[in-house]
Amino acid sequence: MKYYDYLIVGSGLYGATFAYRAMKAGKSCLVIDKRCHLGGNVYCEKQEGINVHKYGAHIFHTNNREVWGFVNSIVPFNRYTNSPVANYKGKLYNLPFNMNTFYQMWGVTTPEQAQAKIEEQREEALEQFKKSNPQGIINGEYQPQNLEEQALLLVGRDIYETLIKEYTEKQWGRKCVDLPAFIIKRLPVRLIFDNNYFNDSYQGIPIGGYNKLIDGLLKGADTLTDCNFFDCQRTYDPQSQLFSVQGAMFDIQCRRIVYTGALDEYFGYSLGKLDWRTVSFKTRTEDTPNYQGNAVVNYTSHDVPFTRVIEHKHFEMFGPDVYACPKTVVSEEYSVEYQEGMEPYYPINDERNNDLAAKYRELAAKEPGVIFGGRLGQYEYYDMAPVIEEVMKIELQALTEE
Which long-range contacts (CB under 8 A, 24 or more apart) does 103-110 make? Predict the structure, then answer.
């Protein structure tokens, strides 16, 4: 029976980063994944010489210099800048909402004109809500009753109906009037000509794709794919504080388990199942070097069923390199209700799920020898950089307690 300091369940960014930090501290790791590949949702599949983001577009961005330096120490990142475009009934708009967007929508050319237009429509919405629902006025201020009202009060009717309403309804599978207001806490409005979606100091894509990042993080770790944690037998001895874990491909003892799977699944859904939104993709090869001229195009009307189209080569190919590769690969992305057997993507932060997740987290805090991490393991939505930050927060404590 082989001994490891850590059995890490899941080889996504959390598990791979934890393994890297643990090995740097002299610890041994076995990383298992139920999929046929390593890397979790950042995994890329090579098609036509292009790194295809198999589980949706992943764009690394952060203000944290330490995190940026860390990932670039594993693999250098390129200069990709996320500048998505919205397609509403065939008309294109730049995102995020900025002076380019306002010119495209209203023909305004100055920040003063754009601000006046937005304020005019916000005031119209506020007056309408106060008249139609005076009960919503609390302490002299109107409190939006749903996502639609929240968005109208933030940016007005034109932006809402063109770029938010139908896109959001496709994402959530619900009408905006049936979604809680807190989903949209703010909608950034830039009164400058700036199509850079993120405000972060650093952003980019690993040169050669995310697989190079994962391979670098997992270098030196033992790894197994097609290995489902829940098909294994495991026991915990409180006296020795050791786990014994036996699967079809291994028989080990370990000091700790780092678990990055679904939080409710770990506990056998004993308190009930948490809800998720998920996405599906239709990926195809186009016999052209440049299909849409941008990595990300959002489709914001109900006229098409998908939410966006990803053209993967634009994440890593720029200028003449786009045309040096004669074909391209595009993925239509569809937001769908989660069903058994699908990949869970996004937690649903409503009252029921928040309460249930809090109860599961209480169980997790009492589970001896197990670290719960990542989007699934904590039932929290994380961008990639915050995942790494979470590992950095716990690694000193977790790696020195033994």
Answer: 105/158, 105/159, 105/162, 106/158
